[in-house]
Amino acid sequence: MSHKRLLLDVMCGDLRSYLRMCGHDTVYALDRGIEDDDRIRSIARTERRTLITRDRQLAESVSDAIILTATETTEQLRTLRAVGIELTLSEPQRCGRCNGPLERTHSPRADSIPDDNPVWQCSDCGQFFWKGSHWEHVRATLDSL
Ligand SMILES: [Zn+2]
Fold first, then answer.
1. Confidence (pTM)
2. pLDDT tens-digit readout, 40-49
3. In 1-145, where does DSSP find H-type helix?
């Protein structure tokens, strides 16, 4: 499986947890407080990321971009799959919240996590992840594409 380095433009933020859960290194412009085109172009270039945007002019001004015309998340995911972005759930690798790397950890004490469920923790923001209802929801959505 080949994972991509991606940059999501402002209008495409709903895709971030899907892409991160599929193992793609996915920066979201607003997570970095960035909205203006020059800075988005700069990140795409210096970090060698494929830009995913709904802005055709912006897409045409960078070397590697995917233009989304749909506004609905599942339609956007279909477009990404059609152009070759692998949309298969991987073992958790990327924090859905901040894109930080995840590491296996011991379960925190929480009633919502079944005892035998493996747990991962984000090295950057400390968030815990496990394959719970959100995971199943994402799996079902990807299966339905
Ligand atoms: Zn995180």
1. 0.91
2. 999 999 999 9
3. 16-21, 37-46, 56-60, 73-82, 133-143
